[in-house]
Q: What sequence folds into this?
């Protein structure tokens, strides 16, 4: 049901936690299952310098959040805003159809964090 | 949103894994979110001697599965069949309403494992 890459990111998630003095915060909920994901970012020269995530979500939510943080570190904010749930699922080698709603949260939380950063400038 | 007991069982889950020579197996899916939970049991003298769970579910699913395994070890099969999602949620000090669908899986998987054991006798 799950690719090796999904299992890897689920059992050994990268960039878990919360940046205490974050430049942007995105805290979003999932309408389907009621889970939440929080992403905090540090921004330097218009690029994502650091990113951490926290979720109470399922294995698919953990894996997509972990994968997304690895993908966007070093990206400009414009590039990071282009990363959506489909791009992350692709990098994971795919996700079961009924778990795509879980993968939405990571990208949504990231975009919210970037908008939060922009608003604060 | 979550009680200390939920957070404890989520971050430090008990009885995770799979019993290789299990007497009963319950593998169930969740209609709401598409997650799955697998419970394996060892039975001796009509009592649950050992139990392990595996889930790709969310934090609430992990916490309820962990709590349930602690509750039912040593119980007779009849006692274990009385344990439902509400009993487990109570032992955890409650769960948010929108996460009750996650807590169903643990009890459902246990009951399926007990029925599986009985069928094999
Ligand atoms: S959201 Fe799937 S088990 Fe909780």
A:
């Amino acid at each position: 049901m799950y690719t090796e890459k999904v299992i890897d990111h689920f059992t050994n998630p990268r960039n878990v936690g919360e940046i205490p003095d974050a430049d942007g915060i995105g805290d979003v909920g999932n309408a389907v299952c009621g889970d939440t994901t929080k992403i905090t970012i540090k921004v330097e020269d218009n690029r994502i310098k650091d990113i951490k995530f926290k979720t109470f979500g399922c294995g698919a939510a953990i894996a997509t959040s972990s994968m997304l943080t690895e993908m966007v570190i070093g990206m400009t904010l414009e590039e990071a805003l282009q990363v959506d749930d489909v791009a992350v699922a692709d990098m994971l080698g795919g996700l079961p159809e009924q778990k795509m709603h879980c993968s939405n949260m990571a990208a949504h939380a990231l975009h919210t964090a970037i908008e939060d950063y922009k608003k604060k400038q």
In short: The pocket of FE2/S2 (inorganic) cluster is lined by residues A 33, 35, 58; B 30, 33, 35, 57-58, 60-61, 102 (CB under 6 Å). The longest helix of chain A spans residues 100-120.
